[in-house]
Amino acid sequence: MSAVDRREGSVVLDGTWRFQLLPAPGAPLGEQWGEAPVPGCWTMHDPRDLPHYTNVQMPFPHHPPFVPDDNPTGVYERDIEIPAEWAGRRTVLLVGAAESVLIAEIDGEQIGIGKDSHLASEFDITGAVTPGRRYTLRLTVVKWSDASHIEDQDQWWHGGITRSVRLHSTDPLHLDDVAVRAEQDGTLRVDCRVRGPLTDGWSVSAELEGYGSLAQDTAHDAANRALGRVSDFLGEARLSTTVADVRPWSAESPVLYALTVRLHRADGSVADTSHHRIGFRTVEIRGRDLLINGDRVFIRGVNRHDFHPLTGRVVTEDDLRADLVTVKRFGFNAVRTSHYPNDPALLDLADELGLYVVDEADIESHDHAHEIADDPRYLPAFVERVSRMVLRDKNHPSVIVWSLGNESDYGAHHDAAAAWVRRHDPTRPVQYEGAAKTDWSSTDIASDIVCPMYASLEEITAHARSGEQTKPLILCEYSHAMGNSNGTLADHWAEIETTPGLQGGFIWEFWDHGILQRTADGLPAGPGATGGYTNGTTAPGYRWAYGGDFGDTPNDGAFCADGMVFPDRTPKPAMYEHRELAAPLRLSYDGTGVTVHNRQHVTGLARLRAAWLIGAEESGTRVVPVPLPDVPPGACAPLALPPELPQGTDELWLTLRVTTADDLPWAPADTEICTPRIRLRERPAVFTGAPAGGAVETDSEGLLVHPLLTAPPVLSLWRAPTDNDLLGGAAGRWRDWGLDALVRKPVSVTRDGNGRVTAVAEYPTAAGTVVHEQILTALADGSVLVEESATLPAGLHDVARVGSVLETAAGPDTFEWYGLGPWESYPDRCAGGAVAHHRARVDDLFTPYLRPQESGGRSGVRAFSLTRPDGTGLAVRLDVPRQVSVTRHRAADLAAAAHHDELTPRAGCVVHIDAAHRGLGTASCGPDTLPPYLIAPGTHRWTWSIRTL
Ligand code: GAL
Questions:
Q1: Is 477 part of the annotated catalytic residue set?
Q2: Which keywords fit this entry according to its UniProt record (predicted)?
């Protein structure tokens, strides 16, 4: 494995190959060959072996290194022709990745075996082929092996050839490896290893585009000293230069320089050439800070798997670019390649677009972690997987940290692998979560960074303040994005930004791993399927499959649907939360003027443009462009307020819509980057002294009767459990208490002389009785004022919501609101968006989380309407900003469904108006929401009005 890129001039063997799927490696081949795409996972197109999802548990009970006898084995075959012009050259077969054991044969002769499902296998086949002749190339891929036990990552199991297959040739005298070290100060060192037959001599030259040749410092000619040698190692050469006025590479400003390295024969002619795009940057750890070019940069990272809903694990360069462009647009500056080296194209793109990468080795032995970490039979695999990754990726400026793998306990193998890396590449730190797990302060371990997963805010801040911290603390995983999640992200970042020693982390994770499945036959739609999905939602006849949906047992259900984007890369609402928290600029307001703060490290604000969004409750929302001063990085400057602000006393918010001014490599001009907001005027009290009207129409229980309502407002304490509610335990308590099946027991109905109706009801639960009072008053403007209170007994210490639920008749299809929007928001996830007037189709308010659950809420709603196309409908006003949701589904409908195709939208709207709504937290894996976002027992009051439009 080397860092010399041989893609140029190679013969690409991708396409349709002959294929047979055997039940086990020794099984006889059949007469009949089928076809399969290469690259491709057979699990995505062959019904005999479908995708299987497990997290920690292995899919079979065997202990390492054993595997089942039933062991799907794919035999891929095609004819190849070795180009005649390769005569006299060295010919190499490269299989980008095969899952899992690869056996290569040419015309029936075995030429090699490879393991590691996420790194290439290279075979020098010079001796096995004659240029100009045709051969049969057979690649046999065996699904299970000893290596499966160290590829036990939390993802679907597949089988196949998952990356490109190519042939390339080199001169017999060739560059075996090129190692580039380019520092922020302009120093550049290039180390080359040379292989070939014994020669009269050789030399290496290197040229940096725009700066000329590098000087050769040293050359070590092994050939001269090794007469009679058997190795083809000829020696090494080191070249160097110092580039004056270098523009350093960083995620913010990814400046790349073209470097060309040439290997010359004794007569000066060129035998081999290697092209590199290099970046000058320095990574160092000083005290407890990780510094990039001397700067303490916050790591706003995301974990990313290679995933595609149609191909399983096969991703094209376009897919990779689309992923990274999305990552950049939502404010991330870092990616952890969880949990294996990605296609090399990903690193080229990270270099180009500007992303810091934690490059992770393909090692996870989760189910048998303790056993394997010190089992000497696995030592070579650990060291080899780490070292081959480092050898391949070391020249990428984007790679700032090497990771020894994931969830494999901590053993001698890790120390061995870390020692190899530290010696081979002293320019980057090494991290491994398992090494720093038990004692965050220890120094003598295989991790230069403390990189816990899912640690609570309390724990990490306590460590940073303990005086014991010896290393940077960057969470390798946090804020588990399963379903409707990522609550308290803002709380996290508030602590991280103000606590020395805390430097960020990587959200778990980018993808929801839903595979597009045809509901008719239950099979994966597979490579090439078209039209099965849009905007995160599947079309009729399809669904997003998760664990168990292919009959795969054992499985871990929907735990693979835990990403910030849907399986088609549509961003979930939590992405906007992250975007805001990571915004390049922030605003502050001191009561008279606004200041804009540039929070970047190297770039000014000139590449951005802005407009004020003026949101006044009474007078509507307007957009006014504002010139953005070009504030230098880290500095601030005044920002002009809009000239004509709405007069009056109603609430007034300003949101700055910041967009890209020009095309950037990751965002065309006018892409929205962030929407920071400030409040200029407080909301005055509402419903004070509103004049009374006539009598309110109610039913015999005192509940509102209204022509547009099919169900009057009653108390709701429950929501369709989110994944966090389910896996964190809250949903179980709610069910035990009976909150999902509340029964209203009328206690009294009284009507006063003015037609005001007071209805008192009890809602018995297993944890005590809730008393609910609702007072209905007709107001002179034709609206009905609804004043409610609910008193929760001490036993109901953590409910989902306290509020009213009502249902409308069919008709209203448009929701307009003044409040936070346009995206879904919840009390602990409401940093993004604008407080303004928003409008949406009712059908679009719902968020299609893969397993149906509470969704579609909007925080801070002050007023809303639900209207038919002719403008008639309902208008609601709220006493204070509250959580509101409008969907086509009752909570019970959502809770009963496992997939969206099981849901039938109701014709009317289900409307929740909440006095209190529990935060989302991240308890499906990690901390729950924080105490301020929990609902305390006691009395809750809320008031609202409803009017016919
Ligand atoms: C971590 C693990 C990830 C994933 C996550 C939960 O423990 O490293 O691979 O399983 O939890 O989704």
A1: yes
A2: Hydrolase
Distance CA 844, CA 933 (A): 26
Degrees to nearest 5, angle at CA 298 with 294 and 301: 125
3-state secondary structure of 693: coil
pLDDT in tens, 702-751: 999 999 999 999 999 999 999 999 999 999 999 999 999 999 999 999 99
How close is the Cα of 912 to the center of ligand 1, in Å?
34
Return the best residue to mutate from 154, 303, 431 for the ligand 1 pocket (most ligand atoms within 8 A of CB): 154
Q: List, in sequence order, every beta strand (DSSP E) within 243-371.
A: 257-265, 270-278, 283-286, 289-292, 295-296, 299-303, 334-336, 356-360
Instruction: Answer yes or no: do 309 and 419 share one domain.
Output: yes
> Of 457, 453, 514, 452, nearest to 483 (Cα)?
514
Instruction: Show Cβ contacts of residue 59 under 8 Å, excluding neighbours closer than 6 positions.
Output: 52, 157, 552, 554
**Torsion from C-alpha of 768, 769, 770, 772, nearest 10 degrees:** -170
Distance CA 639, CA 630 (A): 11
* DSSP one-letter code for 249: -
Catalytic, 458? Answer: no
Q: Which amino acid, one-letter code, is at 158?
A: H
Task: Give the angle subtended at the CA of 80 by the CAs of 75 and 82, to the nearest 5°.
Answer: 140
- 267 and 289 in one domain? no
Please check whether residue 462 lies inside any domain of the structure: yes
Total count of domains within the chain: 5
pTM for this prediction: 0.97
Do 790 and 892 have their domain in common?
Answer: yes
Same domain, 776 and 886: yes
The SS3 call for residue 754 is coil
Task: Convert 141-157 into a string of H (helix), E (strand) and C (coil).
Answer: EECCCHHHHHECCCEEE
164 and 145 in contact (C-beta within 8 Å)? Answer: no
- As a whole number of Å, the end-to-end CA separation of the chain is 71
| C-alpha to C-alpha distance for 172 and 191, rounded to whole angstroms | 20
**pLDDT tens digits, 454-511:** 999 999 999 999 999 999 999 999 999 999 999 999 999 999 999 999 999 999 999 9
pLDDT digits (tens, 9 = 90+) for 774-808: 999 999 999 999 999 999 999 999 999 999 999 99
Please indicate, yes or no, whether residues 421 and 333 belong to a single structural domain of this protein.
yes
Domain ranges, residue 786: 709-919+939-948
Query: How many CA atoms within 13 Å lie on the side-chain side of 403?
Result: 33
